[in-house]
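Sequence design from tokenized structure. All designs in this work follow the same two-part layout: the structure record, then the generated sequence. An example of the structure record is given first.
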């Protein structure tokens, strides 16, 4: 297993090296700091949607596949969601603290998952990871944001209802979801008839992951990190260990192929999304704790992901 660990670590190390490089470039100011904000918008609105469209438009999607992938994701969500709330209540944490633990234990940085799945299995891994993302993106936003709205803004019921309705409006405008829906529609057409569109999105998508990984690294700021040890341990344990273990056993129960099982574990084992920090700020949660969870998860995942993948392979 030790040999397998080092082989896997070397295989996925370029993903983490790009994250480190992005952080170093931001620190030395090359390019200018404003570049990373522009880069983020380019990835969010153009490059990642193109990548998702490219792969989903070529997938033969079955209802059974959607059902199984949904069960894998939702089972993991049920475990981490209930654990975060129960532990938070037992330890007497405020909603500001336990909602940050919740985000840290449930959200996935799908871009890192796509990059690692691509490193392992190439285009096939990216296709499977894209399908997981198709189910994950709307589901996680509805669950987490609705919970935060009801928990952190329950003093004004009218505003809470308005915020929840806004969640669904924003989800319907999400470029990832729109790109994936478009991909599903175009998957019904013969690939020869949309070859120009497929080739164009392939070119755009090939630039998406390296640029996104650099941007993820640039957004990590260790200098103003404030450590709250126990909440960080709880969130990191749920996210980096419990969730991928649950995904592995559920995926194995359905007798999925080894590729599908490994991609499911990859998707579950990556650190929480950078968006978690923005949401913590927006909804007045403990954003300093959220940043600490995000930063420590990225650092720990350098080790936990190869360990988990060495176990499942």
């Amino acid at each position: 297993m030790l040999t397998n660990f080092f082989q896997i670590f070397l295989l996925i190390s370029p993903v983490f090296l790009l994250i480190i490089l992005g952080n170093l470039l931001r620190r030395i100011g090359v390019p200018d700091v404003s570049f990373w904000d522009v880069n983020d918008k380019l990835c969010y609105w153009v490059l990642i949607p193109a990548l998702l469209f490219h792969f989903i438009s070529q997938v033969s999607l079955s209802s059974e596949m959607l059902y199984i992938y949904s069960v894998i994701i939702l089972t993991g969500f049920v475990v981490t969601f209930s654990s975060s709330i129960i532990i938070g209540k037992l330890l007497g944490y405020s909603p500001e603290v336990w909602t940050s633990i919740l985000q840290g234990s449930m959200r996935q940085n799908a871009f890192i998952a796509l990059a690692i799945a691509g490193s392992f299995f190439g285009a096939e891994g990216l296709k499977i990871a894209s399908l997981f993302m198709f189910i994950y993106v709307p589901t996680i936003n509805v669950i987490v944001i609705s919970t935060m709205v009801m928990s952190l803004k329950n003093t004004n019921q009218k505003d809470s209802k308005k915020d929840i309705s806004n969640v669904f409006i924003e989800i319907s405008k999400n470029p990832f979801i729109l790109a994936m829906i478009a991909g599903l529609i175009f998957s019904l057409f013969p690939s020869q008839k949309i070859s120009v569109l497929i080739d164009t999105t392939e070119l755009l998508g090939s630039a998406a992951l390296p640029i996104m990984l650099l941007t993820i690294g640039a957004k990590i700021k260790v200098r103003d990190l404030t450590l709250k040890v126990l909440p960080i341990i709880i969130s990191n344990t749920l996210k980096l260990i419990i969730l991928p273990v649950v995904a592995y056993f559920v995926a194995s129960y359905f007798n999925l192929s080894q590729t599908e099982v490994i991609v499911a574990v990859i998707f579950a084992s990556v650190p929480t999304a950078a968006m978690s920090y923005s949401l913590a700020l927006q909804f007045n949660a403990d954003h300093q704790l959220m940043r600490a969870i995000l930063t420590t998860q990225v650092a720990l995942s350098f080790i936990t992901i190869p360990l988990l993948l060495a176990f499942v392979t």
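The chain has a mean pLDDT of 88. We note this feature because it recurs in several other targets discussed in the main text.
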